[in-house]
Amino acid sequence: MKFHTRIKLLFFAITLVFNSFLIAQGETTKGIQFFHGTFAEALEKANKEGKLIFMDAYTSWCGPCKRMSASVFPDPVAGDFFNPTFINLKIDMEKEEGPTLSKRYNVQSYPTLLFLDGSGEIVHRASGARPVDGLIDLGKEALLKYDKSGDYAKLYNEGKRDHETVLAYIKSLNQAGRPSLKITNDYLLTQKDLTTPENLDIILNGATDADSKVFEYLIQNKDAIIKLKSKETFETRVYACCKKTATKALEYRNESLLKDAQSKMKHHPSREQEFKYDTDLQFYGQTGNAAKYLKSAKSYASKVAKKDPEKLSTLITKNSLYFKTDKSVGALSEVCAKKAMKYGMATNYYVNYAAILSLNGKKQEALKIAKQALELAKAKKEPTQMIESYINQLTAQ
Fold it and tell me: CA-based Rg of the chain, rounded to a whole angstrom?
């Protein structure tokens, strides 16, 4: 079988695997966290926190809505962007408050994705499902439209540099994705006591990069900030700072900066290991360092994924994304896929294993496992059309 054909079959199977897995599992705790309250309560929270509302206007029968709920909203990348940035709402347009809101915002197709300010006015809207990257881009567009940093810059430049104005300026810059470190540093340099509640608030909001003096202030005042806000708020900020520095490390191909970001995740211990492996795999994958990628991937498989079929399958997807032609990475994917099938005992894991075998040139073994997947699907009374199509494609080669 030609290699490019095996690649096509692999991604066909992986799509099947993750669609079926996510639909079965629903939303995960790592994805976008939706506010459970009334629309009025969401507005109140948005005003209090100075955030926009992201509202998913959906219906229970809408296919694209279901796909977003199954494969986009649970994605940890989407969660990392949306959770600290917006007040997130999911509202069925045909139930409870839905019909009233549907009329108010003229919702005529599903899903309709709305970004609202604290008064309920529309800042940005779009219709139709989006992938993770597309949804994040939509959120960034909304933030740019809501950018009030110019108003605060004018006040700041006119000499209005009290705590409230500076804090609002910093928040507006952060929301718009603009640098705020200089404003934060300049303000803190004028302060004799950094431990006042007002200054701790400035430090918390002004810490945006792990490789900065403000981040050092954040860590030095950890206990006071947790007492003032919460442990979750502190750790969310640590993660955001380390993530930004890791992104910067990738942009500049700076491995030492990556290690710096990873080391500072010790202040968020519950996600430290996950962060290290995620950023290692992304960094070495995107920089094409197969040897270091493989070392990290093997370590992740043995120390983290172990017998977890979901994590093993996620690693396989990354392997296929970054190193489609590397035989050593392919061999690791085969081992992981076999373990996922063994411990997951679900149809999608059988298909995934078949796909990897096919990619590695083992057509007959792939057909055997794919047929086992078909029998398992029939026994569980699951849909078989996609698996049958996959088998037909394998057989035709």
Answer: 24
Phi then psi dihedrals of residue 84, to 5 deg: -80, -10
Tell me, yes or no, if 65 is annotated catalytic. Answer: yes
**DSSP assignment letter at 196:** S
**pLDDT for residue 18:** 43
SS3 assignment, position 336: helix
The average pLDDT across 346-356 equals: 89
b/e code 187-223 from CB counts within 10 Å (16+ = b): bbeeeeeeeeeebbbbbbbbbbbbbbebbebbbebee
Amino acid 307: pLDDT = 92
Q: Please give the average per-residue pLDDT across 105-128, as a whole number.
A: 93
Residue 16 pLDDT level (bands cut at 50, 70, 90)? very low
Structure-block tokens of residue 264:
């500072």
242 in catalytic set: no
**DSSP-assigned letters across all residues of 141-189:** HHHHHT--HHHHHHHHHTT---HHHHHHHHHHHHHTT---HHHHHHHHT
User: And the tokens for 57?
Assistant: 């206007």
Tell me the pairing of strands 86-92 and 52-58: parallel
Confidence bin at 19 (pLDDT 50/70/90): very low
Contact indicator for 336, 312 with CB cutoff of 8 Å:
yes
In the sheet that holds 112-116, the strands lie side by side as 86-92, 52-58, 112-116, 122-127
Instruction: Count the alpha carbons within 13 Å of 149 in the hemisphere toward its beta carbon.
Output: 16
Taking the C-alpha atoms of residue 253 and residue 151, their distance in angstroms, rounded to an integer, is: 36
Catalytic residue from among 62, 241, 242, 336:
62
Instruction: List residues bridging with 344 in a β-sheet.
Output: none
Phi and psi at residue 123, to the nearest 5°: -95, -40
Mean pLDDT of 124-145: 92
**What pLDDT score was predicted for residue 21?**
41
At residue 297, φ and ψ (nearest 5 deg) are -65, -40
